[in-house]
Structure formats: structure tokens, C-alpha cells
């Protein structure tokens, strides 16, 4: 299953969702994380550095915490500007065929890389936050998904209450709301997924329940 995490608005917890969903899924199935964001947020979140040379998509990976991480590299910028959507989509599919789950972190836009990841995806997740620009981006994504004949699930990050948006055609608003937590910040500084950090630091983990809920939604 290829799971694409997307929102054209930055700062909505897209990378946080990608990193921790991959970590959660790796507990039960063979899982990979593909960082398609040239900024390399998901790469850094697993304690790695973005590759400072062009690499063919899927040519390098490192297994960390039982997640096969395909790090970002500077070649993604070239793909974003002049890459072929069909070619990129085919490469993503070849990576996905090697795993039970492939989670993809995308750039905060609806460019070549993001479109390729959406086309290839079996499931799409759109994280949102309770800010006007985030909601506007969600509406724009809904329109693009309709054109691609794709559907997505939304989850609400950094909020105790889920966001519901009326009149969406291609996005289903779930009841999943991930509240703010210092664990996300602390884990990010250490270069580990928050769920991994929580396992070590907290006696009664809570964050894991939200990703358990999300995984159940994706299996429906």
C-alpha cells in the first residue's frame, strides 16, 4: 500500500504525520518512508542528513528503527522543476512494490513530485490545522483530487478537536485530532520519531493511539 501525505500548506504537521505513521506501521509490516520533499524534513527526523548529490529515486535507503528510509537528495529539486510525472510515478510504484507499506512525505505544494505521489497512491492523507490558510489549502487540494479522480482522508494536527469542512467532494474529514505535545519538538531535536521517543520517555504512551486510529482508517 502506498500512502501519500500531502498538503500544499507548510506547517500543518505533514512530515510529523509521515514520520510517525511509518514508524507505527513498521511494528506490524514491512514499511518504508520515501522523502520527496527537497527540504528533507522526514530524512532529518530519522537522524539522517539530506544527500548533497543527485541520486536516482529509490537508489539509496537506510534501515532505521525497522523503517527503510529513502532520504531526500538535491536531485529532487531538478525533478520538481523539470521531471516527468509518469516517469516519477513509475519509480515510486517500483519502490512501493517492495514493501507492505510505503509512506511518502511530499513538498508543501502541488507540483511535479506531489502530483506523482498522489497519482501512485493507494491512500492519501491530508493533515490540516485550525488556521484559515490551512483550510484554504485543503479546499484547493480537494479540487485537484477531484481532477485526478482520487480521494483522501484529513486528520487534524495540533488541536484537541477535529476540523470539519463542508462541501468537500474528494476529502473525507475524519474524527482524528492529534493535540499539541512537547514530545514532537523534543523528538525532532533528537532526530527520532516522536512515537519512538515516547516509548522511551513515557510510561503510558498516548500519541500512539492517534496513529493506531489513522492506520485503521487507511485499512478500511
CATH overall fold name: Rossmann fold
Strand content: 15-25%
Helix vs. strand class? alpha/beta
Strand order of the largest sheet: 3-4-2-5-1-6-7-8
Number of strands: 8
N- and C-termini, Cα separation? 12 Å
Explain what the structure shows.
There is one protein chain. With 220 residues, the protein is α/β, with parallel strands linked by helices. The protein has one domain: Rossmann fold (3-Layer(aba) Sandwich), CATH 3.40.50. It has 9 helices and 8 strands. Strands 3-4-2-5-1-6-7-8 form an 8-stranded mixed β-sheet, sandwiched between helices. Strand 3 (62-64) and strand 4 (67-70) form a beta hairpin. Helix 1 (14-25) crosses helix 9 (207-218) and helix 4 packs across helix 5. The longest helix is centred in the middle third of the chain and has 17 residues, at 132-148. It starts with a strand and ends with a helix.
Keywords:
Rossmann fold, alpha/beta, 220 residues
Q: Which helices and strands occur, and which strands form pairs?
A:
Layout: E1 2-5, H1 14-25, E2 31-35, H2 41-45, E3 62-64, E4 67-70, H3 75-82, H4 85-96, E5 101-105, H5 112-120, E6 123-128, H6 132-148, E7 152-157, E8 171-178, H7 182-190, H8 194-201, H9 207-218
Parallel strand pairs: 1-5, 1-6, 2-4, 2-5, 6-7, 7-8
Antiparallel strand pairs: 3-4
Question: What would a concise description of this structure say?
Answer:
By secondary structure, the protein is α/β, with parallel strands linked by helices. It has helices at 14-25, 41-45, 75-82, 85-96, 112-120, 132-148, 182-190, 194-201, 207-218; strands at 2-5, 31-35, 62-64, 67-70, 101-105, 123-128, 152-157, 171-178.
Amino acid at each position: 500500500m502506498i500512502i501519500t501525505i500531502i498538503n500544499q500548506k507548510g506547517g500543518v504537521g505533514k512530515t510529523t504525520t509521515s514520520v510517525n505513521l511509518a514508524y507505527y506501521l513498521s511494528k506490524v509490516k514491512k514499511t518504508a518512508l520515501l522523502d520527496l520533499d527537497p527540504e528533507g524534513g522526514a530524512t532529518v527526523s530519522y537522524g539522517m542528513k539530506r544527500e548533497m548529490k543527485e541520486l536516482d529515486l529509490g537508489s539509496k535507503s537506510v534501515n532505521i528503527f525497522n523503517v527503510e528510509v529513502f532520504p531526500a537528495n538535491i536531485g529532487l529539486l531538478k525533478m520538481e522543476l523539470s521531471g516527468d510525472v509518469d516517469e516519477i510515478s513509475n519509480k515510486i510504484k517500483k519502490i512501493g512494490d517492495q514493501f507492505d507499506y510505503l509512506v511518502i512525505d511530499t513538498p508543501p505544494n502541488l507540483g511535479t513530485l506531489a502530483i506523482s505521489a498522489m497519482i501512485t497512491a493507494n491512500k492519501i492523507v491530508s493533515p490540516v490545522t485550525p488556521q484559515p490558510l490551512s483550510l484554504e489549502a485543503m479546499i484547493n487540494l480537494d479540487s485537484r483530487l477531484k481532477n485526478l479522480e482520487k480521494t483522501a482522508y484529513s486528520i487534524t494536527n495540533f488541536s484537541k478537536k477535529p476540523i470539519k469542512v463542508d462541501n468537500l467532494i474528494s476529502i473525507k474529514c475524519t474524527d482524528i485530532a492529534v493535540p499539541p505535545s512537547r514530545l514532537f519538538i523534543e523528538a525532532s531535536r533528537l532526530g527520532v520519531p516522536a512515537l519512538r521517543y515516547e516509548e522511551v520517555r513515557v510510561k503510558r504512551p498516548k500519541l500512539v493511539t492517534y496513529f493506531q486510529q489513522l492506520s485503521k482508517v487507511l485499512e478500511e
